[in-house]
UniProtKB/TrEMBL annotation, chains A, B, C:
It comes from the Eukaryota. It comes from Collichthys lucidus (Big head croaker). Residues 23-433 form the Ammonium transporter AmtB-like domain. GO terms for biological process: ammonium homeostasis. Functions as an ammonia transporter. May play a role in the elimination of ammonia in the gill. It is a multi-pass membrane protein. This is Rhesus blood group family type. The keyword Transmembrane helix applies. The chain crosses the membrane at residues 12-32, 56-77, 89-108, 114-135, 147-166, 178-196, 208-228, 248-268, 280-297, 303-320, 341-359, 405-429. Belongs to the ammonium transporter (TC 2.A.49) family. Rh subfamily. Its main location: membrane. One of its GO terms (molecular function) is ammonium channel activity.
Length: 480, 480, 480
């Protein structure tokens, strides 16, 4: 057992190969973008002219979310804190350096060279977030080698999907509800479907939290909560669009938070609060406002979206996750389908409504900047008129709201399809025998992959579990 | 007992009602300000023209203080970590969404519409900070329902006071020593006076810390410490005023920190350090520099203020807090009267001195920007002169330093009065029977409001129930 | 025993004296710089004209690294969490306020007055980082009084060295690999050499971690990791130089992180991961890119540097640290020689290569801004030519790449020499009898300097240690 999960050879060899590949790719393809290249003497420091001053603050905020927010949130298991936090660290760092090249090929490719700047890092962190969300579905049941393999495959599949959707379908998705949350969710579900472990449906003795692990996890939630407005607004048009993105995200989060507390209490046997709800359901609002986050939906709509998303997410944890595990062989460890799937769908629908309802009365001419595909084509006389009002306006495709709505729908389905298929294939690769996958017995246990300090003892928590453990678990097995 | 503290009905109903009210108010009154409204095509991105770029960084810093700083700091009890951190989360999110409307009516009301931008969120967070400071006085003895009620009432009382003081008395208080710290302190003391629990004066078995809770609490202190300069400088005039606010806050904090260590050691029986001092007294400097934080008080004055505030705060904890509990029936759980009251008073006095001593030699003409009420009225010829030097100067009331000082004094007293009365009234409402207030026995225990993980056990920590105590209690009961 | 380590008199007296001295110095010498002085009406708010808007965001990021990053990282010992985190807090606050004056005399001295602005605070934080790195060498074996003495002496020695190297030798060291990391490392080694404790070479029973202390320490690592790009880019030329600094630091960190995981697994007996590696070795890349961080070294070079630095750092922990302790009487508690010494040397060499290889083809004329000492002197006709291309260019010394390289070498050796000698002298002062130095028995134990909560018990962990403890320790006694 222990032998077959030793990282002694597998991990180093795998990392070494990856590093050689990445060094080769960086050496041949990666160069500086003109804001980072000394040659251009581009010491222009106006934040809006120079991407470093425009994007770095948002990049830094997202960094905190990825490494500290996710890291703490995923450390909620009593015996799996090292793994939750540290494998998040490993997977994130690899995903970002890998995404820089892969996304670069599709989005920052100028004459065969990838032009590197802070903006690429920002995009790479979004790709990284996708991997980490999917990670939530298989938390506790995978080895670091499997996680690296997942990142290795998910990044390209995501990048292609992202690129295809943006280039051919052309959608509005400022907060990434479709491309980030829906993709990540269905990819993760695909993976976990393949990695199905029947015996874990009865629950696992180590699948519990501790007093300190719950607090640590709440800290993670708070870091995600605090910086989510930066996450949702990082890639919007600057100015009023970005401003609205910040406002809507904040409002959506705060309404979903108080809703989560209310639901947690009302559906608890003894009228008490459940930490798992506070750690996860409170965040639903951030995803739900995503697709329409930069639009003129009005503050009250953001508030209502937070309440709706939170409610859907809560009942998802309560009924859907167990159902999927029992009936559909989909063990969604952290309930990503609730926090990213259901909310992502609601968000997408809200986005579609916002697109259909958008009018020049509300937006003024800048409507054609936000809904850039609705801008008239270059040859259209209306385009010249508009350009008088907004010099920097780019020609569009002259789509109507209804047309754009249909494209959004197309994007939703194709994203879900690509993600699910990609996830299934990735799952099969991760299942290969030399991946050091832990036995059912050793799931949710740091002991397997770490030298543990003397005060750590998970030994007495053995499967099969007794009744009290099951109770424990039921309140805890739904997270992120 | 347990029945009467169940949140099953109370919390959800209460939250639901609040959400309906807030949705209605947002729907009718809240719209975007012109920096957030697409119609104005206001994609101006110069940080100083567009509030989002001017204010968002400070907003984000204050967010960290509110949710992570306060959250960790208040989690210092061994058996009350969940409640300390999580009720802070609940109270803060509700307070901010509530303050957006209430403060909006008073400060961002244009033709019956509340214009929403990041700046409102920033103001709302200061209102939220007020509630959380007051929360410190009743930590461990209140149910989440009571805390929401407190926020529900404190926000309007604070907003009216703030608005009245700023509109009619007109004061200088950049760091909020008067309007934030003094108000929050005396409001909290008013509440706790009404919620007086005689039996807790003899101490409570669960009123203890643990090794990890102390460390968590210090982390909270550090987050508050690190971002305090942003808190004190967020609302100052931009440019050199904001610059001084940052410098003074930092200097005041660092001098109060080393002073706290020294005092902690010298007054400890065995010459050791006490964590409670390091968690609280170190922060005194941040409050003490508040009222004069943007003035030309010179760096050494900021340093001295830090030392003074820290000393007052330390002795407050040592002698005043116990005295107030024993003699005045005021149980100030976290000693907010030391960290926010005494320091706030010193800060206010320092501010008054700085105002009286302010001269054009030191400030140049921009004195009339910082002390805007001392600027000559529009009809005064001196005003035109000054406007030549500072085009953006606004006409003032032509107050002298002495006059302004008197208005500061008036503001101090009226703020304290409004806060105390408001606190008392709020306390009576919170005392109503259906508020799920915990019994003395159940104070400082997460068990009461949370499903606890298996490793949590506060059971053996019972209150000292010797014979005389029982007598005491029974006599109290007869009183009631 | 207890008597001789009591802080009752020593600490307060020492702090009091320091405060009197600092107040006197601030009063006489410290005034506002022109961006912070109201008189200049300098309400210029363009981020690049006004240092507060240019520097404050980086200052805030570095604050988080110093107080939270270092604080958590140094709290990795099971029984020494309070001390690790809290003494870091004390030492940092004192170091910064002290550095403001000392560095001020050398670098911000205008007509006998120290002009204070956020930029000074930023410099002071770098000086503070130097002290905290050195602190890592003596962690667990020193009293707070000794640490304050160390800061008291190290700050001036560092400031003189920094000033002399920058003024007379004139080097490129944007990330501070030479002046910060090498200085801090060899100063710390000098101190610990003098404070040598033979009995601790056998290891100490309390020199172990716990499950929660390891997690806390990883959080510290993550905070350092996340904000390191701000640390390395804070003092570079704005524009593309700063942009590259951010990119290189991020890339270097992520390559060193995955390398650290691989090495940790391959050299572990059972093919498991060691937390000490993840807490420390992952950060090596941040130091290694330091000296060339703003140069056109290409992204792949940053990646390779991360891998190299990480490898050197890892083997340093494995072989060099034990060797130094056994043979050279140098007990490097946290292995700063690996994380800051070896990596600093590699970084310096890489910087020299980058300097020699720098050409106008790659950099364009702005080469003479980055390598300012290679710019032609004012009388050289080439200087006028260049000034046409870059108006703000300053005249230099007309050094060739080779010449500059030699000056870099000179700087490396003189920095190491000054640091070592300074460290030795400081060590002798710290060894004086009234410094409350803990006995060997009481090392790594919070009990000695803190009132401990009831759940703390290090009592049964007494020296002499048994075998299993030693094993424990060997994997844990090398950190930061």
């Amino acid at each position: 057992m222990n032998k077959s999960t030793s990282l002694k050879v597998r991990l180093p060899v795998f990392v070494l190969v990856l590093e050689v590949v990445i060094i080769a790719l960086y050496a041949v393809f990666v160069t500086y973008d003109e804001n980072a290249d000394a040659k251009f003497q581009n010491n222009e420091t106006n934040p809006m002219e120079n991407s470093v001053y425009r994007d770095y603050p948002y990049f830094a905020d997202v960094q905190v979310m990825i490494f500290i927010g996710f890291g703490c949130l995923l450390a909620f298991f009593r015996f799996y804190g090292f793994s939750g936090m540290v494998f998040n660290f490993l997977t994130a760092t690899f995903s970002i350096q890998w995404a820089i090249v892969i996304q670069g090929f599709f989005q920052f490719n100028y004459g065969g060279k990838i032009h590197l700047g802070v903006i690429n890092l920002l995009y790479a962190e979004f790709a990284c977030a996708v991997v980490l969300i999917s990670y939530g579905a298989v938390l506790g049941k995978t080895s670091p080698v499997q996680l690296l393999v997942m990142a290795l495959l998910e990044i390209p599949i995501f990048s292609v999907t992202e690129w295809a959707v943006l280039k051919y379908i052309r959608i509005n998705d400022a907060g990434g509800s479709i491309l980030i949350h829906l993709f990540a969710c269905y990819f993760g579900l695909g993976v976990t479907f393949v990695l199905y472990r029947p015996s874990l449906n009865k629950g696992h003795a180590k699948e519990i939290t501790s007093y300190s692990s719950d607090i640590l996890s709440v800290m993670g939630t708070l870091f995600l909560w605090v910086f989510w407005p930066s996450f949702n607004s990082a890639l919007t048009i600057k100015g009023d669009d970005q401003h609205r993105a910040i406002l809507h995200t904040f409002i959506g989060l705060s309404s979903s938070t108080i809703t989560a507390f209310a639901l947690s209490a009302v559906f608890n046997k003894r009228g008490k609060l459940t930490m798992a709800d506070i750690q996860n359901v409170t965040l639903a609002g951030g995803v739900t406002v995503g697709a329409s986050v930069d639009m003129m939906i009005s503050p009250v709509a953001a508030y209502a979206l937070g309440v709706m998303g939170c409610t859907a997410c809560f009942f998802g944890y309560k009924y859907l996750t167990p159902f999927m595990a029992q009936r559909l062989r989909i063990q969604d460890q952290c309930g990503i389908h609730n926090l990213h799937g259901l909310t992502g769908l609601i968000s997408s629908i809200a986005g579609i409504c916002a697109i259909i309802l958008a009018t020049e009365e509300t937006y003024g001419p800048s409507m054609y900047q936000i809904f850039s595909h609705r801008a008239p084509p270059v040859d259209d006389p209306k385009f010249l008129e508009l350009q008088k009002l907004i010099p920097e306006l780019k020609p569009g495709l002259g789509r109507t709201g209804q047309e754009q709505a249909l494209y959004q729908v197309a994007a939703i389905f194709s994203t879900i399809a690509a993600a699910s298929i990609g996830g299934l294939l990735t799952g099969f690769v991760m299942k290969l025998s030399f991946m050091a996958s832990p036995s059912d017995e050793d799931c949710f246990d740091d002991e397997l992959f770490f030298d543990m300090p003397a005060d750590f003892s998970s030994a007495e928590f053995k499967m099969p579990m007794n009744h009290e453990d099951k109770e424990q678990m039921s309140s805890e097995n739904t997270k992120v």
